[in-house]
Amino acid sequence: MAYRGRITALAAAIGLSGCAALYGLWPEESGLFRASAGALLFAAVSFPVGWWLGLKHDRLARMAAMDPLTGVYNRRFVESGFVRLAARAGKQRKRMAVMLIDVNDFKQVNDSHGHAQGDAAIREVATALQNGAQRGEIVARWGGDEFLVICPYADDKTVAVFLRRVRELLEHATLRTGVRLAVSAGVASYPADGVHLGQLAQLADERMYADKLLGKRHKAEEEAMQQAAQAQ
After folding, report:
1. Residues 150, 181: contact at Cβ < 8 Å?
2. Does a structural domain hold residue 92?
3. In the list 96, 126, 140, 172, which could disulfide-bond 78, CB 3.0-4.6 Å?
4. What are the TM regions of this chain, as residue ranges (predicted)?
5. Which residues of the chain have pLDDT under 70?
6. Side by side, which strands form the sheet with 183-190?
7. pLDDT for 214
């Protein structure tokens, strides 16, 4: 996708240069030298123009596909791209995992540190997801403080490895920034749990919410144990 516009533009310039050469050979009085010179002159003009137009197209296409705050893919891109990914996986009889990830206590970050720090926290999570994506995972901002990750695998062990890597990166980011960064996650499998992205995202969202509640319960239990230990 990154070079599609430039490749297309250069291919068109080459084709037009070839046509210019053939056109120069068509009249009886035209010679090979005249045709070659005309084609070279046409190419000298069309190649830079074509490259520039292709570069503009590629930049616009990238801007349309990326989330401006985090630099990961946006929701519209992943929704349109999932159809092609699912078709390919179906033909190859492969499974995929769709993961929905939510930043824990994000409202507290905004309320305590301000919206600028909240945006910085979102970027830190996006960076951790991108750095954790080492097996072809596609990371997209789903909306607000939620991210969607499409994994080209669906086995629980590999998903767990990915999440553990991301959480380790977020622990380092917490120490570096002084802002607690943690996430909850839910996973749905294609095609076992559904074949449409909407179905999979909804199920992953339900499982993510259950993971968030479990995390809050564990945190409350740990705090209660610490208070009991301090009271003794």
Report:
1. no
2. yes
3. 140
4. 7-26, 32-53
5. 1-63, 218-229, 231-232
6. 138-143, 146-151, 96-103, 183-190
7. 87
